[in-house]
Amino acid sequence: MAAATAVSLSFSACRPKGAGSAVSGNAAQRTYVPPGQYDEFYTFTSGGFSGQMSVYGLPSGRLFRVIPVFSVDPEKAWGFSEETKPMLMTSHGFVPWDDLHHIESSFTDGMPDGKWIFANSNNTPRLARIDLTTYRTSEIIEIPNTGGNHCSPFTTENSEYVIAATRFSVPPDGPASDVPIDSYKENFKGHISFVSVDKETGEFDIAFQLKTPGLNFDLSSAGKGVSNGWLFISCYNSEQSHTLLEVNASQNDKDFIMAINWKKAEEYFKAGKGTKQTNVRYAHNKYDEHTHTATHEIKTEVTVLDVADFDDLAYLIPCPKSPHGADVSPTGEYIVGSGKLAALIPVFSFEKLQNAIGNSDFESERYDGIPVMKYESALHGEVEKPGLGPLHTEFDDKGNAYTSFFVSSEVVKWDIKTLEVLDRQPTYYSVGHLMVAGGNSKKPYGKYLVAYNKITKDRFLPTGPELAHSAQLFDISGDKMELLLDFPTIGEPHYAQSLPADLIKDKSLKIYDINNNNHPFKTNGEAEARVERDGNIVRVYMTTIRSHLTPDVIEGIHQGDEVYFHITNIEQDWDMPHGFAIKGAGNSELLVMPGETQTIKWVPDRVGIFPFYCTDFCSALHQEMSGYVRVSPKGSNVALTSYTGNK
Amino acid sequence: MKKLLVLLTLGIALYACSQSGKQGSENNSRASIEQQPSDYDPNRGLGKFDNVEVGDKLDVAMAKDGKVIADLKCASCHKYTDERLVGPGWSGVTAKHQPAWIMNFITNPDPMIDKDPELQAQLEICLVRMPNQNLSDEDARKILEFMRENDGVK
Fold first, then answer.
1. A chain contacts of residue B73, beta-carbon cutoff 8 Å
2. Which of A511, A516, A619, A623 has the most B C-beta neighbours within 10 Å, making it the best mutation to test the interface with B?
3. Cβ distance A176 to A189 under 8 Å?
4. Which of A48, A360, A524, B130 lies in disulfide reach of A491, CB 3.0 to 4.6 Å?
């Protein structure tokens, strides 16, 4: 330990001036997880423009896994295997990339329940559910009537609904959406989707959408405790500008936080008050852990309620200026608006909001049909001179709030009730989102805060023009925040969720039981391994076990055949995947988990002998785990044969 | 180059051995660490089974089920004759080993490979550690019955 500390000290002595001094002496000790021991928290981190989600340990900052979600991943055959291709289907066809923005746990009674992690894609609007037993994306649903699904996947107190709200308002889907772009104010609409989550299976269904004026929705938080049943959404571009938003959407001193009574909306929906829209097309893709196969379907109907048709669904709270975060305190009493161009942080009171609604204490003019509160009547107070460019706020277990400041590059701790600033610590550099362990729940775990910085510059050894984004871990258990650790991240993390390791680690699946493998092309033991031809379609039923592939000699394949290698891994031991790759394949490898069947398609483009092999080191004889396919000209009379070992 | 490869392979094999504790389930690896070498009973093996009662006669139904399981989970590496494939052939195994040893080994292979002198010797020949095929107690018993049938018990 002394050595580790000495190393960290001597290293910090080389840091650029100012940065090293922020680290306290025993930081190494407090982030060191000895070999073979476990971290205290799992941290599920958004991968931003990588489209994936990464899993880190805290406090070590060690990366455990990258889970492919919205982007293809040839390492894991995500989007390449026949089984996973349907997961990336959309109404636009197969989409190999997206921009995964935010992460949210599934919640029960306002606390992470460790069942699922939700994620949203910003470009082609979708919502994903990741299973916390398999650490795989189980479901993806596309969101219709939506431009960019940024304001998502925030959930209600019991994950009754996951929210998906548009960042770019657009005309509703359908042929009438062919309109001049400068008719924005007239034709462009926002939509907020309420996607229900089945309590047992987790399955998504777009229950209903709320149609709103053409605002840009940024982030949201559901009410909890006293404010359960409400949803708070930050809105920018209240100017409803359609061009040069950098200038034109920054004109108004105040934009809005939209307060939505979602229980009321649900009531209206259930009472049949919505309108069925049937000119939408959206994908709904599910992965089945028994057939080891995904299915894709297109849905064509959604129920829409126009908020302007109801007096008691939505209210607008003026909020300075172009707010990003709209974050609800653990008790549900306060809503913090982080106006990214504002010089203060307004904190709204749920109680005052309710009183104002009860007294119809509104501005005289509605905003496109929605009642607008008076700023002061909903205000609990303002945090004065907190910093520049507040973005996002989370909470600890002691009544404190932590707000990230992009422009002044710092995290600021303040008291929720008194609004007094208690501490500020610089971040390196320009923090975007931050995350307190459990900081969006009813009872935050506290202890750690991670700042997800947008700019890295000189924090790590340089790697050319493109740098990994940098995360910074703070200990927030004391009065002052203490910087403990920098660690690089995958893509651009916009948010994360820390879950106590004890909540989920024992639920992690070790193998797929081969007796429950219902894959239609499973090979149930080596005796069933074979090759079958049907016209130009050839199916290879292959097994893997340490350390051979069966069959490993295949002849009678013709150039241009569609060859499907259905690989069943008959191992039943943890951490014993086998890989499969064949020369010239125009897609990826396969990694087949114990008990699983996965398929790769191969169309041989020439005559000859093609080796294939196991790509994942499996035993001392891994290097021997290989085989050959003979490819003959089309119409050749070479018999279709296959064997391993003895003919 | 060849020499280097040999060294590398050896290194990997050694590495695989040194990792063995991690490969088993947590409980098993802990047990294997705590147990002193002198405690090891080469007749019983290491695992949960002490005395496995087998009848004089074959339980035909059980043996039949056992073959189905063995065909799926074992036959990739073991022939039912005395011929070695990846691992040794099964012929004669029930004469050579106590029922408890067999059931302990097939349900708890990794910790037992670390302890058992004969399995250590086998590993030097086969170089592949027998995989844990996640057999239930019942599966293991049925496979034992099939092994008995394979060895001529009627």
1. 514, 525, 570, 572
2. A619
3. no
4. A48
